[in-house]
Write a structure and sequence with these properties.
28% strand, 6-stranded mixed beta sheet, tt1808, chain A, 4 helices, 10 strands, alpha+beta, two-stranded antiparallel sheet
């Protein structure tokens, strides 16, 4: 006789209660993905530099039209609260102090990938698509390219394009503003 291994999945609400109770400490590098508490990879210098560059770039390009949230939680559904490297959000007067952003608040989510490229492609990007995030990017610092995912569906993004140095891209929400891939990669 074989026994089936059952997992106990947590909701975002339960995850927050664990933080409030001190079971998970504020500084712990974890995120909730599909009900599981996942330890996040440590941040190397290339990754940190990429996040810093993107934060400045989006502030410079879009000013007060967006709120740029580096490495902050986004509550994408009842069982997932990832911490994308960059969330480009609709501005809100309270700067999301009263609640984390949800998919309706998101213009774009970006993952900066150094050591996490497989995880970002197979776990995070499909999650964003399932939860109807209109646009997501992976900035692959090793391959020096930007993967752009659009047209979310329950089975994955229906559109994927890869951009390299010398090319430009526009956000779906702001087609009038071009961003050079060289600006993104540095």
């Amino acid at each position: 006789m074989t026994a089936e291994v059952l997992k106990r999945l947590f909701t975002v609400e339960q995850f927050h209660r664990m933080i409030e109770a001190g079971i998970i400490e504020e500084g712990d590098r974890v995120e909730l993905i599909r009900g599981e508490i996942v330890e996040m990879a440590s941040i190397g210098t290339r990754h940190a530099g990429g996040v810093n560059r993107l934060t400045r770039l989006f502030y410079d390009k879009f000013g007060k039209e967006v709120l740029v949230a580096p490495q902050n939680p986004v509550e994408v559904d009842e069982y997932s609260e990832p911490q994308p490297d960059i969330a480009v959000l609709r501005p809100r007067e309270d700067f999301y102090a009263s609640a984390h952003p949800t998919p309706e608040d998101v213009f774009l989510l970006i993952e900066v990938s150094d050591l996490t490229i497989r995880y970002d492609r197979t776990i995070k990007i499909p999650l964003y698509s399932e939860d109807n995030i209109a646009e997501a990017w992976i900035v692959d610092v090793n391959a020096e390219r930007v993967e752009v995912y659009r047209e979310p569906s329950a089975t994955g993004y229906q559109s994927q394009r890869t951009f390299t140095r010398g090319q430009t891209i526009e956000l779906l929400a702001f087609p009038e503003v071009s961003i050079a891939i060289d600006e993104i990669l540095g």
